[in-house]
Amino acid sequence: MFTAALIRLQKSWKSYKHRFVPWVVFNLSKNEKTLRQVTERSKDKLIPDERVSESLFKLFGTLLEKKSPVCLDHAALVHPTPCSTGEEVDGGYPARAMLQSLGFCIDRKPSTLPLAGTGVFVTRGFIPKGATCAMYPGTIYQPYEPILLQSLRNPFIFRCIDGVLVDGFDKGISKLVFRSCSGRDRIGPYETSDTSWLTRSPQNPLAVGQYINNCSNEKPANVCYQEYDVPDCFPIEFLQFLPNVNYSHDTKRPLRCVVLVSLRDITAGEELFSNYYTIVH
């Protein structure tokens, strides 16, 4: 009986460790190619925030247009999207919108890493180097806010360079907290965040970044994390597609999002692997 329990624990750990920060940092430090060193938060950006915004505007404008075909929103006209590719795409209108606006589709599938559980793959199209290719969803906690209960048995907490935390777990108390905060922040008829990432079918198809496994010495990184603070000019009608919400209603700083940016060209069929940055003083 003890042996069976030990085997279950070992299997659980092998799946969990690929998202466990101390294990990742300790093991990947053996190979400097798996770590990206930055001197400060402002130096972690591979691409400007404006390019991140441009990609999000393209996708969200297309999602809005396909979601409400009778009423073409002003934002969709301001941020026009390319013509349809003509391809049949599984995954409904979110996947079609992604392929149409960004030129690729991503989805969750069993990872190629042994016992790593779920991973994220490019299923159609092509991701060019320097493209915004995923978002890390979840509740945003400032460094001084309580997260102990939510962190228990939770392998999906991401720590930003400045100590801000993103809880990307889509189950248990983390799921309840996100839904509660999302409902609280609604502005009249406008939703200010997207809760569909908590389901199997997110309306924002980028919102699967928490399932991207960390790279290993055998599986080098092809994407990396980049922090992105939502600018004041972000269209209010696009907020409904953001998979993040502040834990506290009175947070004085812009909403933090974390996106993943491609480090090289990535083709259909490839799995996405991320790397961690380390701060160099």
From TrEMBL:
Start and end residues of each SET domain: 100-277
InterPro entries assigned to the protein according to its UniProt record, in alphabetical order: SET_dom (IPR001214), SET_dom_sf (IPR046341), SETD9 (IPR040415)
SUPFAM superfamilies referenced in this protein's UniProt entry, alphabetically: SET domain
Protein name as it appears in the record: SET domain containing 9
CDD domains: SET_SETD9
